[in-house]
Amino acid sequence: xxxxxxxxxxxxxxxxxxxxxxxxxxxxxxxxxxxxxxxxxxxxxxxxxxxxxxxxxxxxxxxxxxxxxxxxxxxxxxxxxxxxxxxxxxxxxxxxxxxxxxxxxxxxxxxxxxxxxxxxxxxxxxxxxxxxxxxxxxxxxxxxxxxxxxxxxxxxxxxxxxxxxxxxxxxxxxxxxxxxxxxxxxxxxxxxxxxxxxxxxxxxxxxxxxxxxxxxxxxxxxxxxxxxxxxxxxxxxxxxxxxxxxxxxxxxxxxxxxxxxxxx
Length: 264
Known about the structure:
It is a single chain. By secondary structure, this protein is α+β, with helices and mostly antiparallel strands. The strands form three sheets. A six-stranded antiparallel β-sheet has the order 1-5-6-4-3-2, with helices on both faces. The protein has helices at residues 22-33, 71-79, 82-95, 126-133, 142-161, 201-211, 221-232, 240-260, and strands at 3-5, 41-44, 50-55, 60-65, 103-109, 113-119, 124-125, 164-165, 174-178, 183-187, 194-195. It is built from eight helices and eleven strands.
């Protein structure tokens, strides 16, 4: 098993490098790969192509990347393995000033599997904020909901304006928490991210469709417009007409998908 460790103290995360040793993480990876849970670790629901676990005391996540298909080996030779892409894409976001999981350690496992340890990032999924933390029905939270959606729009607009396209921008892959004056957002599941300058309209459209995958009961018309106006404020390359067309098509595309899934 090949193993790499990269630990940097992060005091405001509540943990430091002295609490995590190379040997401990190495042993955890071996146990978790064998479907055993070391003390303090819990399994996290994930796709069929990954195993995920979390240690809440250490605020560390473990992700094991399982082979998707034989084609994955060829793709890895060209673009790097899934674990490598996840690690490098998170590093690119951090370097550009966006919040993303900090890589701690990574290595290879038998059977063409790889793993990655990352620090947990603060917050709950944007989907949780939209549905339950700041629901439409609560008038007392209305101003906070509007602020949240405006700031989310600015965040995604900055992301696209910098050329980043997230590989799966569903609202559960954006974490949010209240800061002192503003909401702070972080991006997770960055394995399939790409970066182009300028970002292609069709890829921004896909990201916006993914964000729109909420029923009208969860996310109203004024909610979406508030988000899109803030998003467009960060995309100087798009005219008002182009932005409007992208907003309309991303919404209609999401509604077609929701209807096909029987959610409308």
